[in-house]
Amino acid sequence: MPNPMQANQALAGLVNHLSTAIVLVNSRLQIVALNLAAENLFRVSQQQMQLEPLTALLHLDSPLAQQLQQSCAQQKSFTLRDTLIQQTNGHQLWIDLTVTSVDELGGLALEIQPLERMKRLTQEARMATQQHASSNLVRNLAHEIKNPLGGIRGAAQLLERELTTEQREFTHIIISEADRLRDLVDRLLGPQRQAQKQAHNVHQILDKIEQLIKAEADQRITIVRDYDPSLPDLLIDTNQLTQVFLNVGRNALQALLEHRTSNGQIILKTRAVRRFTIGSVCHRLACCISIIDNGPGIADAIKDEIFLPMVTHRAQGTGLGLSIAQSLVQQHQGLIECDSHPSYTCFNIYLPMESST
Questions:
Q1: Whole-model pTM above 0.85?
Q2: Which residue ranges make up each domain of the chain?
Q3: Cα separation of 297 and 307, whole Å?
Q4: CB under 8 Å to 354, separation ≥6 — which residues?
Q5: 97 close to 80: Cβ distance less than 8 angstroms
Q6: C-alpha dist (Å) from residue 151 to 157, 179, 245
Q7: Residue 235: which of 144, 330, 349, 354 has the closest Cα?
Q8: Tell me: the pLDDT tens digits for 159-172?
Q9: Residue pLDDT, tens place only, 108-121
């Protein structure tokens, strides 16, 4: 049976593993402690924030500041739902906030639940259902199209033997178009093999992507690398992830070129993210690869459907690049998300790091 000290240590460890951000402050509203979720939410460390005022994390408007002071003085708890807070870095968050008096501290415990995370999980589940149904439909249609293609191509080859040289030009067109349609169907069917994972440095793949994009870009577009050098090697299929990053990177480049964006920029960024949930699994560590551009943004009409097959706003686009990218990321038990508005589009690719070397 655990003694009281062991129980307290277990309780402290449990608090550190909660997905809810918890901030402890003293009677002067100075930060005493943060759990890992709070460190991750505000991108700070406990050592960095020790005895710093709460305003080092949050801009406190007058009503909220007064509520906190009253709660501390009167030892009363309160809860705020759907509250918009502003971080000191300028980012805004919609949160549920529960403030509880802590007698031992003479201060408060702030429980912060970002609503974006809950909305993201809900949206992720909805999109997964929608994409599964869409993918099944597309695959069934693709198989129905592919089956007669071999017969059409074979019949054209047989017919070619009976025709004159001039007439064979038409059978060449039939064969060529049948091959093109077969290639399109193969892309609709998606990756045909499982990921072959090996330990690899993700930055080496991004360096390769940078060179490929540079070869297609013009001098108006700059590519910026913002890497986290502390990231370990990841267990990944380098060919598949090269395809993912290239599909996303080329989309960014095409948006900049087609819109003729002045001072166009593509940022390749990596970061480690703690306690990140993908599907129903909360991962202790995940690698986030971001590809960001300052182009026109994605049209609102297709923003919620960009990962579905055949969805595109480009006249010459097939609408398959992001659908394929998503399928490949899912083979790595990862997640790909998009945030876009005018002058800013960011694709975040999250890959679990538990199996990293």
A1: no
A2: 4-115, 119-189, 198-352
A3: 15
A4: 283, 284, 285
A5: yes
A6: 10, 12, 36
A7: 354
A8: 888 888 888 888 88
A9: 999 998 887 666 66
Q: What pLDDT, in 10s, does the model give residues 6-57?
A: 555 555 667 777 778 999 999 889 999 999 888 888 888 888 888 999 888 8
* CB-side neighbour CA atoms (13 Å) of 32: 14
330 pLDDT higher than 90: no
**β strands within the chain, DSSP E:** 21-25, 31-34, 58-59, 78-87, 92-102, 107-114, 198-200, 222-226, 234-236, 265-278, 281-293, 335-341, 344-352
For residues 33 and 185, what is the distance between their CA atoms, to the nearest angstrom?
A: 56
Name the superfamily (CATH) of residues 198-352.
Answer: Histidine kinase-like ATPase, C-terminal domain (3.30.565.10)
Q: Measure the CA–CA gap between 353 and 283, rounded to whole angstroms.
A: 8
233-271 confidence digits (pLDDT tens): 999 999 889 989 999 999 999 999 988 888 899 999 999
Distance CA 33, CA 14 (A): 14
Sheet holding 344-352, edge to edge: 222-226, 265-278, 281-293, 344-352, 335-341
DSSP letter (8 states) at residue 175 = H
Domain covering 4-115: architecture: 2-Layer Sandwich (3.30)
d(CA 241, CA 191): 12
Predicted confidence at residue 253, as pLDDT, reads 94
How far the first Cα of the chain sits from its last, in Å, is: 36
Three-class SS state of 163: coil
State phi, psi for 342 to the nearest 5 degrees: -50, 135
